[in-house]
Amino acid sequence: MTSEALSDEAVFAAFPGVLIDRDNIAHYRGIIAGKLLINRCSGCGYWVYPHRPLCPQCLSWDVQATEVSGRGKVFMFTLIQQQRDPNNRLREPIIAAAVELVEQNGLRYLARIVNCLPDEVRPDMPVQLTWIAHEGQVSMPAFEPMPAWEG
Ligand SMILES: [Zn+2]
After folding, report:
1. CA–CA separation, 121 vs 144, rounded Å?
2. Is 86 in contact with 104 (CB distance < 8 Å)?
3. What is the distance in A from the centroid of ligand 1 to the CA of 55?
4. Ligand 1 mean position to 45 CA, how many Å?
């Protein structure tokens, strides 16, 4: 089954508790398909994120979910120490980051940084897209240090 074939109801069911609307549903369909899609203006090429139906640059309504390269750099990050789920044996803080994607200045996607110790993450650290697999759930986008990165 292709992601395009998924009904809206199937996308809603895959992300319980997430507010999904007509502007971001293609993004979530992409996640199910293992692709990171960001809305992009067909008129001028501007990446529109957070997802909105209208390009803020040229006011075109022709905005299409488009796959990004998955490369970027850490713009800012924080360490989440709170153990939200008592059944989840969390042993180290979660690194939550705004990753500035290479596609456009200021295009920042919020995701976890993984495969990196908390004291090794740095602003401007080059990162690439990876996926966090959870049993029985949709794999979620995250970022990991680029292989060449040595601090
Ligand atoms: Zn535009």
Report:
1. 10
2. no
3. 5
4. 6
Q: From the CA of 146, how far away is ligand 1's center (Å)? A: 31
Sheet holding 47-48, edge to edge: 47-48, 37-41, 63-67
Measured in Å, residue 47 CA sits from the centre of ligand 1 at 8
CA distances (Å), 20 to each of 16, 27, 46, 148, in order?
A: 10, 9, 22, 36
Cβ-proximal residues to 54 (8 Å cutoff; 6+ apart), any chain: 48, 60, 61, 63
Residue 42 alpha carbon to ligand 1 centre in Å? 7
CA of 52 to the centre of ligand 1 (A): 12
Q: Name 144's bridge partners.
A: 128
Place of tokens 């992601």: 3
Gap between the Cα atoms of 134 and 137, Å rounded: 5
pLDDT tens-digit series, residues 36-89: 999 999 999 999 999 999 999 999 999 999 999 999 999 999 998 876 677 766
